[in-house]
Design a protein that fits this description.
The protein is globular, with a radius of gyration of 18 Å. Helix 5 packs antiparallel against helix 6 (171-187). It is of the alpha+beta class and 188 residues long. It is 43% helix and 29% strand. Strands 6-5-4-7-1-2-3-8 form an eight-stranded mixed β-sheet. The mean pLDDT is 83. The chain starts with a strand and ends with a helix.
Length: 188
């Protein structure tokens, strides 16, 4: 079975139908994306674990990552799967298959879609999906959307550089990076 590597993408919210949330995973090359609808609690979990919302205390995901690190357990990869409907309790039908390794044994565990995405980020692990599922459930990304995504990727990188410059007390460099960020934001 041929697989496709995915990158964590954007999150979108809609005011229609009382508000709905969609999480996007992009195929490398950013020509297709896998949109996955999320419930409000799933969305909150994603945003708080991705540090977009304040979090009270330690999340279960960060606790699991810490315990795994302490016991030298790695999350080698996350595979997005779509089990039979009877096996799948999530509203979107996608689940995450986690591949753990403790130095001797590989163990596969099925987890919720959102849990797998959050853990892949916590462990810096790649995300995969079968080519068949990607072709069946993904959508094309138009050139305008790709331009927006490219701009967002550049902004994200520049913001990381800005924070690094501030942390290293390189204020002239930080000022220059800040100007670049403003220029990109104003070009919309």
């Amino acid at each position: 079975m041929k697989r496709v590597r995915l990158d964590i993408g954007a999150v979108a919210a809609s005011a229609e139908d009382g508000g709905s949330f969609t999480f996007f995973l992009y195929r490398e090359g950013m020509d297709r994306c896998l949109p996955v609808p999320l419930t409000p609690p799933q969305m909150h979990s994603v945003l708080s674990n991705f540090k977009q919302l304040p979090q009270n205390g330690v999340s279960v995901h960060s606790l699991l990552a810490k315990v795994a690190q302490d016991y030298r357990i790695e999350l080698l990869e996350v595979s997005i799967v779509k089990p039979e409907e009877s096996e799948c309790g999530e509203n979107n039908g996608f689940m995450s298959e986690l591949l753990f390794f403790d130095g001797e044994t590989e163990v596969r565990e099925l987890a919720g879609f959102v849990d797998g995405i959050i853990l892949s980020r916590s462990f810096s692990s790649p995300i995969y999906i079968s080519e068949e599922l990607m072709e069946k459930y993904s959508t094309d990304i138009d050139s305008h959307s790709k331009d927006v995504l490219d701009r967002e990727a550049v902004l994200k990188r520049l913001k990381e550089e800005l924070q690094e410059a501030i942390n290293n007390e390189e204020y002239e460099r930080a000022s220059e990076i800040s100007r670049k960020i403003e220029n990109i934001k104003n070009k919309k």
